[in-house]
Amino acid sequence: MSEIKVVADMSHDQSLLVHEEASSTQNLTGKTRLASLDIFRGLTVALMILVDDAGGDWPVIAHAPWEGCNLADFVMPFFLFIVGVSIALSFKRVSNKFDACKKVGFRTCKLLFWGLLLQGGFSHAPDELAYGVDVTRMRFCGILQRIALSYLVVALVEIFTKDSHEETLTTGRFSIFKSYYWHWIVGGSVLVIYLATLYGTYVPDWEFVVYDKDSILYGKVQTVSCGVRGKLNPPCNAVGYVDRQVLGINHMYHHPAWRRSKACTEYSSYERPLRQDAPSWCHAPFEPEGILSSISAILSTIIGVHFGHIILHFKEHATRLKHWISTGLALLSLGLTLHFTHLMPLNKQLYTFSYTCVTSGAAALVFSSLYSLVDVLEWKHMFLPLKWIGMNAMLVYVLGAEGILAGFFNGWYYRHPSNTLVWGSNLRLRSFYTRRVSIPGEGEWRIMQDWRTLTGDLQHGARRTVRNGFHRAAQDDAARRESA
């Protein structure tokens, strides 16, 4: 799911979403590198790979079909949060605003380029040994494009408001907020634009052509009836309407998470064929990283910048943690209150304000925990794998999360493209787990409640699966020789 290299320190030409340069991960004394930044980034990348690879079989960790917040729904906000922290540290000193803007613009363009290349549909790895995309149906938005927008806006605010910041904060509980008031003005403006558009836009009826070849409606025109304003349901929300009008429906994501909702599938939360009586919108595209939702996502980066400012202005561990934890708890409380009072539901697809608060609050608490363990208690060795991932996040993202490495190995096959190391291992593991935990809604509970049974049968089950697999392969080989 994301790019992980975003911006560079003014004195070093390295990208910081992937790996913070030394000067931007130091505190004000310049002596101690904040290892928790790299580890938080590495944890987010590892989490992204986990939910991407296992989310189809374990829907409890995949994206929520619509309302709600599962494990996968924390990945994008965590990236935006750490980008914000990095921006504050990278631009703590700006000697030349023009040069700083050039670097921001260049890195934004790089993010957009890699986003279109990796998520626009050009690479079909690892599912197919092919590349290329029909430009009439190329996906314009994506994770990297969202990061690019958030980075561009927040970095420019940081650069052009640098002169208004005081090196030493005035006394008072909210002095840190007063010193960076322009950031909160921008954040408030973003929120007003988002809410006004979300609730004030009239959504008319709309049509689309089904391009899913596995659908019984392939090639047919479907009509979705709306004619409403202020709705947050899948077919008639303003987020989708703006994307259809600006991007064009053919340039949106064609496999939205809502297909796993109860209205669309027989087995809710699992990636199964759509119901025959599913409403027409279940077959429609939807862009989870669209224009309006990406505008709302800027708030996640602004909150991250605030945490970076605390690092710059407060040197004591206890003071930093007090600010971070109190802010995180306040955000969590606000977001959960909005959700459970039904004022605004948690919704990653729409990137609602309640979702922004909950995920940013969670990011704040996770970051505070890592900071306490790594930079305060100095328990760094136990997190070395995550630190390495965080410092090489772009490489891990491209090779792992985008399937490039798996696609490379799939390119070397024995007689048939499906007979590869990757697919063979995957099928055997799926075969084993299908026999054990694939009953909808019960798999997760079985594993948690019956570890002894699962692990006790693991060796025997795996051996039987491998033996059967080789037996079937031998039969297929013999049949091909006879036919030849």
TrEMBL record:
Keywords: Membrane, Transmembrane, Transmembrane helix. Residues 33-158 form the Heparan-alpha-glucosaminide N-acetyltransferase catalytic domain. The chain crosses the membrane at residues 74-92, 104-123, 143-160, 181-202, 291-312, 350-374, 395-414. Coiled coil: none annotated. This is Heparan-alpha-glucosaminide N-acetyltransferase catalytic domain-containing protein.
